[in-house]
Amino acid sequence: MPIAPTTLLSRRSWPETRRVSEILRKETVGGALLLAATVVALVWANSPAAASYRALRDHEVGPEALHLHLSLGTWAADGLLAIFFFVVGLELKREFMAGDLRDPRRAALPVLAAVGGMVVPAVVYVVVAARSGGDALDGWAIPTATDIAFALAVLAVVGTHLPAALRTFLLTLAVVDDLLAVTVIAVFYTDTVQVTPLLGALALVAVFAVAVQRRVRSGWLLLPLAFGAWTLMHASGVHATVAGVLLGFTVPVVRSARAGGPTAGPGPAEHLEHRFRPLSAGVAVPVFAFFAAGVSVGGLDGLRTSLTDAVALGIVAGLVVGKLVGILGTTWLVARVTRARLDPALSWWDVVAVAALGGIGFTVSLLIGELAFDSAVRAEHVKVGVLAGSVVASGVAAVLLRARNRAYRRIEQAERLDSDGDGVPDAFEEADDAQA
């Protein structure tokens, strides 16, 4: 049996396309807030009041008895991003259990593209950073992550008519990318593990799993369990965001009738995703960006100095070149191996544009950068590299998307046509009939 559909990047079912469109609208708003938070942080950190920014970021709060007397920056990285990864866990499980990606032939392309989009940037980084020696190679995973919120913010400005198939491909790729990234964090960026707290965290995750499997939705029970699992995971030495992914994976997936499933109301995963996605996109990620992106550039001389560091250059090369080559190359290989053809409405230039968008690495890249290096100077260079690489990748994607916008408008018009007025566009009815 072939491992990919005979047509690459073809339309999905209408319920799945509608669901993904709703998710992307929320993430686009979150992307705008992310950009705003980043700009505020950069301006503040490079203003005469920079000391007040650092004082706010480093201000410590929390109970010392629980070893949670942490800086606000650490609370954002370890605490708020756990919410982000909880939503990632929900989304990924839902995609593979009830979404179109339950079909292995459809799942193969975005999963393989995500893997290629991580391996190649890591190799590019190692090649560039190896000449620096020392601890430079510790940051090999920094350019491997795609920031979907940042990418969608770019799309909202320059690629508003991107076809549904490409948007879905980008979202799925980024979600798989995030899962692989948190796996990398757990395996490669955990120095020591305290077994007792780790077992306690896993026990609370198991209790949480039993509760949600029994359809418990009460926050008074689920939230303390989740917070307890996060606290013990943090104490174990494993990055606390891992708890978020594990908790997300425990939630059962039952599709509502609106999403093409059997239940009248939202299933447990839909219910929790509806509650936590706005918190993740609108609060958790922007606040993390605010505390993580405040790098003191030091003017043109400081920027030049940062970009002469092999670590920063490796990050830029990994995001701009590695991501594009990894995603595009993997997609092309899948097409060659399976003898599949690209959807007739699309061009390989569209795949290049989406691959360039994959080079926008921000949230998880900054998180890995904080874990990889203890040096404050090198940490600043990492931030400059991530920001510079993301801006360049955004520019490349913007040029390609603008060049194809006229074709995207024609596809969008075709996807909106509903001649029989049943609420399902004709193009999706035809696609469903063809798949049947």
From TrEMBL:
It is found in: Cell inner membrane; Cell membrane. Keywords: Antiport, Cell membrane, Ion transport, Membrane, Sodium, Sodium transport, Transmembrane, Transmembrane helix, Transport. Residues 417-436 are annotated as: Disordered. Gene3D superfamilies: Na+/H+ antiporter like domain. The chain crosses the membrane at residues 28-46, 66-88, 109-128, 140-162, 169-189, 195-212, 279-298, 310-335, 347-369, 381-401. One of its GO terms (molecular function) is sodium:proton antiporter activity. GO terms for cellular component: plasma membrane. It is a multi-pass membrane protein. GO terms for biological process: regulation of pH. Belongs to the NhaA Na(+)/H(+) (TC 2.A.33) antiporter family. Na(+)/H(+) antiporter that extrudes sodium in exchange for external protons. PANTHER family: NA(+)_H(+) ANTIPORTER NHAA (PTHR30341:SF0), SODIUM ION/PROTON ANTIPORTER NHAA-RELATED (PTHR30341). This is Na(+)/H(+) antiporter NhaA.
